[in-house]
Amino acid sequence: MSEKILEVRNVSKTFPGVQALKDVSLDVHEKEVLALVGENGAGKSTLIKIISGVHKADSGEIYYLGKKVNFKDPTEAIASGISTIHQELNLFEELTVAENIFVGNVKGFSFSKKKAFKVVSELLDSLKFNIRADEKVKNLNTSEKQLVSIAKALFLNARIIIMDEPTATITEYEAERLFEIVKGLKAKGVSVIFISHRLEEIYQIADRVAVLRDGELIGVKHITEVDREELIRMMVGRKIEEMYPKFNRPEKETIFAVENLSVGTFVKNVTFDVRKGEIFGIAGLVGSGKSEIALGIFGHLPANWSKMVLNNNELQPSKNMLEHGIALVPEDRKKMGLVLELDVTKNIVLQNTNEVSRGLHISWKKAKVLASEEVKKYSIKVTSIYQKVKTLSGGNQQKVVLAKVLRKTPRLVMLVEPTRGIDVATKVEVYNIVNRLANEGVGVIFISSELPEILGLCDRVLVMHRGRSMGILDRHELSEERIIKLATGVDD
């Protein structure tokens, strides 16, 4: 067993009304990838924030390189060799790659763009990162920005790199490249704490896995000693018999149909229909146009079509499709689905003011009743209905989005990447909601990059490639191989 580089000993942390961590102890060894898993709200974020100097533990100790440490802020942790790459990357979009890596790290000499370019170019070459040091960060895609964050951590001589949901917004190909880079980091002597909800990734990249549940450490296992079923049981405290529950009842009646849908330069002449009781899936790689289909139908992006019908009513392009009964659960819940600075009540009420207002006056007494009903209906974990949405876990934030969108009882709901960044148990809750919607006669369009849930949940699947439909597969035709072939433009 390699030497311990980090030791967390009996760490506890309490926030108002919530015990986030209780007596947690774990180790990180040299040259290892330790996966940290658990449901949203399990304590993962609190633990890494304590390790990286964002929060102070109420009790317990942390030892780094054999010495007791108590970082007063993230800057001190970074200077000591512990860097965190957050899901929302902290980079300056208008600066170059070299400037981002140097910013805040120029010590004892004036900044020289020429010197920075040379040093960073050599670093990127040594890492085999295909990125130019003089490229502005705003021109990079998400995975390239992650590589910049990794390069910055190594520039600062990081011994431990914490990666928080690093694959949440990148393609499968980009994820594979990231895993190769992580393996290379191990070879260079760097340890990695890897946080992900995607269990298949854990088995692909981790040496050991630590499981948190309700703020407590449930166990640490070598990845070869725990199977997927046991890992899920450790995470949620129970056995999930059916990861993809399916109890919808598809019928032949058509609820929604669109012919020759085009959305800007993203989607060209796509035709499909959604039947009563079915879950209609749309799959494809990043950039295929699958998400833009929903944004075009909803009116968020300019779109046109030769014919669109919802419940026998023909629709024309409009910027307010909500009036026609079309709802959208957006891909980016933080930017498009929520107002993070507002509380749960205000977020739910925003889209449903007609229920609690008369003219310009809102009855907050009615708003309280409405929000309480939705919090109970969707089992949203909150300290109160006046808790700010930004303080909720990803899964509970998504439930707030679902609550406010579905409160209006839409006739067609489009869910774009609805389980991205949420835990296993909450995913199952979302799948149950989707099944119920279909059975209640709501048209359901389910758009996802995760093939297992497409295969497990959908009755028919439209596969997109570079803005065009490659075909619609019936359930008996669905397979991962068939979808990937179509999504990559291989149609045999």
Automatic annotation (TrEMBL):
What is the membrane topology noted in the UniProt record heading this document? Peripheral membrane protein
Q: Which GO terms describe its molecular function?
A: ATP binding; ATP hydrolysis activity
Domain (ABC transporter): give its ranges: 6-239, 250-491
Q: Which SMART domains match?
A: AAA
Q: Which InterPro entries match?
A: AAA+_ATPase (IPR003593), ABC_carbohydrate_import_ATPase (IPR050107), ABC_transporter-like_ATP-bd (IPR003439), ABC_transporter-like_CS (IPR017871), P-loop_NTPase (IPR027417)
Q: Which Gene Ontology terms of cellular component type are present? A: plasma membrane
Query: Which compartments does it reside in?
Result: Cell membrane
Q: Does the keyword Electron transport feature in the UniProt annotation?
A: no
What are the protein's UniProt keywords?
A: ATP-binding, Cell membrane, Membrane, Nucleotide-binding, Repeat, Translocase, Transport
Q: Which Gene3D superfamilies does the UniProt record give?
A: P-loop containing nucleotide triphosphate hydrolases
- Write down the PROSITE patterns for this protein, in alphabetical order: ABC_TRANSPORTER_1 (PS00211), ABC_TRANSPORTER_2 (PS50893)
Name of the featured protein: Sugar ABC transporter ATP-binding protein
Query: What organism does the record attribute this protein to?
Result: Fervidobacterium pennivorans
Q: What is the lineage of its organism?
A: Bacteria, Thermotogati, Thermotogota, Thermotogae, Thermotogales
